[in-house]
Amino acid sequence: MQYQSTEDIRSGLKFIAENDPPRSSLSNSATNLDELQKCCKAARQFINYRLRSESEVRFRLSKRFEASVVRETLAQMYREDLLNDERFALMFAESRKNSRPKSASAVRHELEMKGVSRDLSLSVTADIDDLEAALCAALKKSRALSNLPEYKFRHKLIGHLRRRGFTYSMSENAANQAWAALRPI
Description:
Blueprint: H1 6-12, H2 30-49, H3 54-62, H4 67-79, H5 85-98, H6 104-113, H7 118-124, H8 130-145, H9 150-163, H10 168-182
Helix pairs in contact: 2-4, 3-4, 6-7, 8-9, 8-10, 9-10
């Protein structure tokens, strides 16, 4: 499966101005149309801040609007190409990979908590190399722990990596490599 780069995805987004009127299949009563416009505006603001999954948008909007208005708003967001769970999952996984490395299983779990389907989360995280991610996370954290003695350094770093979803053996291996990188012979 070929994925787009982050830049391609971001450039492909077409954020619509807040005043663009939504196309509605709801009855044309002024109240419903007004509610739909308010809901669409709220959805755009929420999505413009960062990409969101459909589930996140639905949950947020359902706090303030009726289900029929939320359903129509989600349909409008899909028509405007502002909602796309695959694009969201790709961006989320790439962000985790680059800025806060976690294991593939931890990223999958986070995606599923955000309402992304299991199949999609599995396909998006398939290219995450846990060993590489563990080493990257270990090297980042090792700078903050560099003044500690070796046993404390390893203990704290292994705990840090375990909380990010890596296995004990993988965490231990990454901690050993990080210690060796800090203390060249």
